[in-house]
Amino acid sequence: MIIRVKIIITFILVLSFIISCNLKHMSLKQDPAKSSYSSTPSKEQNHDLLSFIVLDNKFKSGELRMINEMFSKYDSLQFGSSYEPFRRFFGGDSVEYLTDYLKKRIKYFVRHSEEKLQQQYSGDGWKGIGAYYMHDWLQNIFDPYSQIIQTKINGKTVNIDRPRHGVITSGPAFFDTSIDVLERIGILTHEARHSDCPTRPTDQVAYYLFNFPDQINTSYWSCVNVHAACNDNDEGRACDKITWGSYAVSFIYDAKIYMDCLSCTESEKQTANLSAKTYWNSRFYINPLSGTPNTSSFDESE
Ligand SMILES: [Zn+2]
After folding, report:
1. In a domain, 144, yes or no
2. Domain-located, residue 178
3. Ligand 1 center to residue 22 CA distance, Å?
């Protein structure tokens, strides 16, 4: 009997940082589509990640406060150079390599509406950090008669027509007070990985990725790094069957905080260590760090 592995094309964070009117003075005006990125980040540059991201103006004031706290924390991060997998994946040891990775993949941070949450995810298994727009994209390229899927962010139309459209959504779970601020940054790094697609799939592959990912070779899964259900009858949990997927990035981020964060407290490091161990022990079918990661090489215009 074939047990259909229910794939949760994971939670792609479509994080959209919406900034309310009273925060108009913040640095949100830059159109990220016009940004240029250095392939070799400078160690001297200010992280200033937020200046590359458009925040949804639907975020509530409490949420904005947490978002700003997160980016302030991010700006204070300093990394050493002792953790090799981070270097292998991000291309270097410093925070700037992580910044470069994030700003290429997160261009809009959007507040997920309650209506969309209910429409896309009924039940209580999913609380709002995820890949809503990834589903749209896969569905769109499968259906030749569909329009390019679009969404409006702060009144501007953004096309959802490729994996790296840069729209990350955030639901209520992102603001759960039990989540440490460093872990929120970790969530961003995870969701950003879902924006990668080394090779644009054919319509047929996209169809299977969207509907029946367990019925195609897992080599295709590196497109948007889909997850598989964990094989322990826990349908609410997702695992990675591929190397260097989104959970691998989550693990690397936490391990880096634990082993190599120069600006973190001991308590923050221990929290990250616990999280890294949890990922390592519960999210992988295989060694997630074997071989060479495919990360920044694909054409952004795909
Ligand atoms: Zn995921």
Report:
1. yes
2. yes
3. 33
